[in-house]
Design brief:
The chain is α+β, with helices and mostly antiparallel strands. It has 16 helices and twelve strands. Helix content is 49%, strand content 10%. A hairpin with a 2-residue loop joins strand 1 and strand 2.
């Protein structure tokens, strides 16, 4: 770009441990940016407008999925996140029944038990990777509870979920066998859920879990076996990595701000509001994409029908036009209208559950491990700017909290 502005935006060029200075430059100098693979929007107002507009849609699953991955393609094609109305409307209405505030509230005691069990294991180990020991297994346990998955199958579920996530663009670039690993996981997931559906139908099994709710839906509504299986896999994987990142980055931000951490420990009842700010401050998903269904004008630039638009949620949530002093972690801030869970018809259906998991999980960590602090080993970040979070974060149960957890965005502003 002429005039000394930023050049083409490339995720590979962004510091994954601290992407916010890069976002700030584009937001200030080229907020509706024409990149090499489409448009990038960096301002909150523009991102919110596109998310809420029927002029944009998902346009189906990623076209880059190989033809020789039929199970992966079939699974992803039945993910609600890639659907547009009217199919999206029908599937969302069904799935939303499992995520009402009443149902999530009823799950809270069990979520607390699961969190408490993992925290007890952490305390017994002393120094441990928080991602592997808590942030990753916790949401898998919770969503498995919601689905009605037997306890003995949950380690297998977690392993398959990790394998399926190898198909993301950042991981495919690093791992030659990524699609093959994801294809195998999709095939095994499909076989598992189809066997579970058949077993429940044969036994005329009832129940109140999500699989029971899905099976109770009449066939005439267009809910076929592929869609049932794909929906189960989608809920399992979508609720896994995002909540893992929310928990790990939320704790990392609190450890970097011991004064806020101390106040939360003294007033755990303020955690629900604090979670909203933690989600805004360092969003677990940094970007999502849409496709223009018709020509549109955004920030003086013309976006043509059929063009891809990447919405940089992490930048929108640090936009000072919407959130004054946005690089400051303010647990008393009104962080509503952040974009971390999306907006419009694709607003995250599992957001109530994610909030509950974050609140209950962080409460368990802060109350169960009063000396929780980062160990001397530096935080290692996953090489993925979209599903953004630590890959390894070693903590210890005792000792004084550290001031600086070796990353920029969680330092004092």
């Amino acid at each position: 770009m002429s005039g000394g502005g930023p050049g083409p935006f490339r995720t590979a060029d962004v510091d994954v441990a601290d992407p916010y200075p890069c976002y700030r430059r584009y937001r200030e100098e080229d907020p509706v940016h024409r990149g090499e693979d489409g448009w990038y929007l960096f301002r909150h107002a523009d991102v919110a407008r596109v998310l809420s507009s029927r002029r944009y849609g998902r346009g189906g699953p990623p076209a880059r999925l190989p033809e020789d991955c039929p199970h992966l393609r079939r699974t992803v094609a039945n993910w609600m996140v890639f659907m547009d109305p009217p199919r999206h409307t029908r599937v969302r209405a069904l799935v939303a029944k499992a995520f009402t505030p009443r149902i999530v509230e009823g799950l809270r005691p069990r979520i607390g038990e699961l969190a408490g069990g993992l925290v007890a294991e952490l305390a017994a180990q002393g120094e441990v990777d928080l991602v592997d020991g808590f942030a990753a297994p916790f949401p898998i346990l919770v969503i498995s509870e919601l689905l009605g998955v037997p306890k003995e199958d949950r380690p297998w579920f977690r392993a398959r979920a990790v394998d399926l996530q190898q198909a993301t663009s950042a991981r495919v670039a690093r791992r030659p066998d990524a699609f093959a690993v994801a294809e195998r996981a999709a095939r095994e997931f499909g076989a598992y859920f189809r066997a579970e559906f058949a077993r429940r139908r044969a036994e005329a099994a009832g129940g109140t879990d999500l699989i029971a709710a899905l099976l109770a839906e009449p066939v005439r509504s267009g809910i076929d076996e592929d869609l049932l299986a794909g929906t189960c896999v989608h809920l399992l994987t979508a609720g896994h990595e995002t909540t893992t990142n929310l928990l790990a980055k939320g704790l990392l931000a609190l450890l970097a701000h011991p004064d806020r951490l101390d106040r939360l420990r003294a007033r755990p009842g303020s955690l629900p509001g604090a979670v909203e700010e933690l989600v805004r401050y360092d969003s677990p998903v940094q970007m999502i994409s849409r496709w223009a269904h018709e020509d549109d004008r955004v920030g003086g630039r013309v976006i043509r029908r059929g063009e891809k638009v990447t919405l940089v949620l992490g930048s929108a949530n640090r936009d000072p036009e919407r959130f004054p002093d946005p690089d400051r972690l303010d647990l008393h801030r009104d962080a509503r209208r952040h974009t971390a869970f999306g907006l419009g018809i694709h607003y995250c259906v599992g957001a109530p559950l994610a909030r509950a998991e974050a609140e209950i999980g962080l409460t368990a960590l802060l109350t169960g491990l009063p000396g929780l602090a980062l160990a001397d080993e530096p935080v290692r970040w996953a090489d993925d700017l979209v599903f953004h979070g630590p890959a390894r974060m070693v903590v210890r149960a005792g000792g004084r909290p550290v001031r600086d957890p070796t990353r920029g965005p969680t330092r004092e502003a």
